[in-house]
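Note to self: user wants both folds in one dump. Writing first protein now.
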Amino acid sequence: MLGRTAVTRGSLSVADEVGLYLELYRRMVLIRQFEDLVNALFLQGQVHGTTHLYSGQEAVAVGVTSVLDPADRVAGTYRGHGHALALGLDPQRLLDELLGRETGICAGRAGSMNVVDLEHGLMGCFGIVGGSIAAATGAGLALRGTGNVAVAFFGDGATNQGYFFECLNFAKVMNLPVVYVCENNGYGEYTPFTAVTAGSIIARPLAMEIPSQTLDGNDLWVVRAAARQAVETARRGDGPSFIEALTYRFVGHSRSDPGKYRPEGERPARGWSPPAGRGASRPRVGGREHCRGRAHGAGSGSSKGTGRAVP
């Protein structure tokens, strides 16, 4: 089982910092291999219902959760295996849950989409599109003044739901310590998000004067730096922040989706490769180039943060 001892990066020696990065990379690999196993078991008929795999988006969950403290709270999506493993859930107990076993994290009752583990700060994974936004906003209300933070993960499709506008407005007005993380993988189920979304996603939180960034969600270090800045803003009592992480899912929306709607040649190679010009030591998910991280209304500086679930 993964540890959950928080550390401050500024206090790490070189050896410890290398260890931290290796641990984060290991978690990304764990998520990918876990999802490959879940897919194989699903095809064998051992995982009932459906599954929504996180393959390709690993750097987002691992980067964000790496700067959280044990007392922070996270709301995931129905594509939540990655969020759960990034927080340090025991992979075997999570797999048992998907297989309907009593030894599962929720005694086999949650299945693939509704995992909860408060011990690791996971308030829940929500099958309702946008449900994680509402849950994290409520948690932010409860955490206000404590120095702790709530994080909502959600997809690009959720930005067209009523939850999105209502909750972000409420969080801004009430100055809540919430970090909203939009994992923009380019598709809402089978539809390109650009075909159903007017304007840009980032313009919406900016209209509410929420500090916002659009960044390369396939680059662990870019995600981690942006998350550290957003989390520290929330901890100081300076209100919510918004991150749009541009990423890509290698698999279909769910296991019933072969992904035939994608243009030929769009799908990148499975695996990590270093971003151009940045050296082979920096793991990256996928091969699609995105912006390096545009800060809007939040300044471009970074500050020290705490790491979650690292030795």
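First done. Writing the second protein, which came from a different request thread.
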Amino acid sequence: MSGAMGSMGLVAGAGWGALGSRQCQMGDNAQHAKTESALALRVALAPLVATADIAVNARVIAAAIRAAVAAGAQVLLTPECGLCGYPSAARAGLDDVNRCALAEAEDALLMQAERAGLVLVLGSAECVSAECGPAGWTNDAVIGGAVSATRYHKRHLTPGDRDHFQSGTRSVVIAHAGWRLGLAICYDLRAAPVMAALAQADADVFLVIAHMAGVDPEPGVKATLIPQLCAVRAAEWATPLAFCNTAAPDAWCASGAWDARGMALPSTSHGALFMVDLPARSSHPDWYQRVREDHLAQWPA
């Protein structure tokens, strides 16, 4: 398959999570030297269908970790809110989420990924208010395992998101295996400044998790638009992009990956996972690096 991958998903099932004591890493991540690998980055996409049951979601994700390691993946992506269930879809809201169970599940999954030498990008959430009421949570991508655990709070919220979440303010770029991994969530794709901030932080790859599903007021439009948007974001920053969406029955589009030219990449299926090898930016002609530099010059530092 190429571009948007098939709709096969992991029916939840199971999940985990590390609660909010970890601080988001600033996008500049200055302590990490820039040493982009000339080798491809093997990424596993796990388009699971999350439920409201954290334990069920955690079991599915744990199985995905084992499968990703067996397939030689270096990074595993789950969908947005893959551990807790996306509010308005898997669950009505977040008021009934057991914060301790969520934190324990996150920690267990991160520990499993760490033992396996795998980078896990986990869709979860964090209560950041005393009451954990409406809009008292952040919508998170928790990255950990083979790298120090860090939370990215989704910066660009949909109108529906704002009923449950508050937005983050910082970019997260993490170094691993000679790559700099930049995180984004779903609607962030539509926010040019969010993606520009990742490029300014010298991200070598955009790792995007999403729950793009639900009622589409113009059926078929998003299915066409979203893969094109992923391709444009990859091409304008000359940066490969991997996109993991839910495989819910009402998903607008499938998961996929694009290289630094914006070209759709082929994938192979391993059970419920999709595997893709992302070529390094440096594997393309120097012209693409100049495209990136020219585009960066148009954005204020």
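Dump finished. Worth passing along: The two ends are 38 Å apart (CA to CA).
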